[in-house]
Amino acid sequence: MTTTTDSRAAERAQRTADSRYIPQAGLLLEVDDLHVEFRTADGVAKAINGVSFNLNQGETLAILGESGSGKSVTAQAIMGILDMPPAVIPKGQIRYCGQDLLTMPDDQRRRTRGPEVSMVFQDALSSLNPVFPVGWQIAEMFRVHRRMNKSDAMERAVRLMQRVQIPAAKERVKAYPHQFSGGMRQRIMIAMAIALDPAVLIADEPTTALDVTVQAQIMALLQELQEERQMGLILITHDLGVVADVADKIAVMYAGRIVERADVYELYRQPAHPYTKGLLESIPRLDQKGQQLAAIGGLPPNLMRIPPGCAFHPRCKYAQDVCREDRPPLREVVPGRESACHFAEEVLHG
Amino acid sequence: MYKYILRRLIQMVPVLLGATFIIFAMVFALPGDPTAGMCGDRPCSPAFVAQFRTEHNLNDPLPTRYAKYMVNLSHGDLGTNFRGVKVAEDLKQRYPTTAKLAAMAIVFETVIGLIAGVLAGIRKGKFIDNLVLVSTLLVIAIPVFVIGATMQYYLGVKWKLFPVTVSSGATFYELLMPAFVLGSASIAYAARLTRTNLVENLRADYLRTAVAKGLTRRRAIGVHALRNSLIPVVTYVGADFGGLLGGAIVTERIFNIQGVGGYTFTSLHNRDGVAVVGTVTILVLVFLLANLLVDLLYGVLDPRISHD
Predict the structure, then answer these.
(1) How far apart are the CA of B227 and the nearest CA of chain A, in angstroms?
(2) How near does any CA of chain A get to the CA of B222, in Å?
């Protein structure tokens, strides 16, 4: 087992050196001023309004936000699986190893999906094709991208299923998705996503549809694989608890913008944005049993009518006149901490 | 699986009994005398009528006649029609033509229906989609005898592209136009069914996964979406085949095809109850078996369906 892992690691390193031009040490993905709009008959919904972040090799970035904050759209834009139209990307760059994915020819970009950038979806039951055996669906990655023959590809599929700890993988390789439990299905989804050793793995709410105990197992598996393969992992979630142990950095999104970015530990200890603070306070805690839960008042904004100034101001208890007119940029508050709030210092220290 | 098949076969018995009894009762409840017109211009002699009625059990009460018929049927005897010919003989002669016609209609239905449906589905909202939607609506709205007679007049009589009627030999070439006419409505339904299912599956989560896997659009649609979209279409086409095997009374009349549909019609017209019941018994059996096959096929196509 160790030898295969070693040889695989060597093979991977070789391939990485061959095919991946990494301009800056370890820098895999740069998202730069990304904008995404949905142009529908009812109007234009501005889902993402200038998102920028970098992802390094071996790094886990958690993107946190409510539904409608733009976190999933960001993931789909990176992956290139937005339905265009109605989605439009009017501005921005997504550079993978220095190359802009958005201006790349379609076929070239298609070839990056799987071997370079890969994705795990939320609901594994609907995300796997119901009429093909799971082994076949994993093997398809090798057959399409590596032109491998059927039996070799199936063998690789079995090995991957073993790697993600599916019991009796050899026997179950011909089983269909509906014959697995939710946790096992998500493992299959993960096996498929890591099949071609991608440099970047995006997990879009990978544990939302699962039981709490299974959630922990899946997160542990993702973390293990990420460390083993030194992938850059983007973890998209609305659940602060899920990412706490796994992520290195957290970006909090609100109304299509990153409102706070920090190391996980720092952010949990002392949020520098009122929205993050509200999120943290709204987590039920055992030591405050019997007390009123501090939910954030109001609703996330309608993306067709994002409030002027700071998008969060209608729900913010720190809001002043300036917040209604002037949109605060994301700025460094203290070293390593960024917040898009006029009163970040007060939030941080208050 | 075998248990399921066995259960289904046993279920056929009451269906078959019920269907034959209803047909039996209805046919013999029709007014009219089967001996009328049997003896040329004169009325038949009372002696002949009496003999005919005894021979065909026409004097017995309905339940007795049905019981006698079913006893014969259980020996594989479909009865003798009023012209003194075994119904089984008649059917043996006519069934190949009907089966051929039905098979050709199904080929039209599958090929044209699928191609039109897929083209419309992947170009949803575009010209080809609207073309398919409008033309299929038209075909569904127009009765088959209008389509049949119109095609017969233009393609057969006026432009002489196809034979106007079908000879007793019923060659492939002669059956082309009738098969298209017979299948026309089903072509339209199959096309619409394919389109609807494809459009739905193109929005499915697993198709997004297929794209995220780096598959080409052709493979994502052609393998992943199509395989799922075709499950209901295959089911429809299979059930339709069972129906078409029952003969096509209208289409067979228009093109003078010597098939089962025409036979049923003539027998009904002549109050030849035995011939009608015998034919319908076979048709019901074929239809039930075709449906069983479709259900089994469904289990093969969709792994989520289990017959255990």
Answers:
(1) 8
(2) 13
Q: Copy the structure tokens of residue A132.
A: 């093909």
Q: How many CB atoms lie within 10 A of CB A174?
A: 12
CA-nearest of A256, A259, A251, A275 to A328 is: A259
Q: What angle do CA A43, A46, A47 make, to 5 degrees?
A: 125
Scan for tokens 């998102």, then name that residue.
A51
Instruction: Give the SS3 label for residue A211.
Output: coil
Q: Is A348 helix (H, G, I), strand (E, B) or coil?
A: helix
Q: Is the Cβ pair A130, B206 closer than 8 Å?
A: yes
CATH code for the domain in which residue B308 is found = 1.10.3720.10
Q: Is the peptide bond before A90 cis (omega within 30 degrees of 0)?
A: no
Put simply, the answer to whether B208 touches A81 (Cβ < 8 Å) is: yes
Q: How confident is the model over A234-262, as pLDDT tens digits?
A: 999 887 777 778 888 899 999 889 999 98
Cβ contact, residue pair A127, B205, below 8 Å: yes
CB contact residues (below 8 A), chain B span 120-179, against chain A: none
Overall pTM surpassing 0.90 (yes/no): no
Residue in chain B closest to A136 (alpha carbons) equals B224
Pick A129's closest partner by Cβ from B212, B214, B224.
B224
Closest CA to A78 of A218, A236, A190, A206: A236
> What pLDDT shows up at residue B210?
93
| Residue range(s) defining the domain that contains residue B283 | 1-308
Element (H, E) at A37: strand A27-40
User: How many distinct structural domains can be found in chain B?
Assistant: 1
Banded pLDDT at B251 (limits 50, 70, 90) = confident
Tell me which range, A31-45, A335-349, B80-94, is most confidently predicted by mean pLDDT.
A31-45
- Cα separation, B74 vs B76, in Å, equals 5
Of all residues in chain A, the one with the smallest CA distance to B217 is A110
Mark yes or no for CB contact B303/A130 under 8 Å.
yes
Rounded Cα distance, A117 and A29, in Å: 10
Q: Do B212 and A113 touch (CB under 8 A)?
A: yes
Cis peptide bond prior to A130, omega within 30° of 0:
no
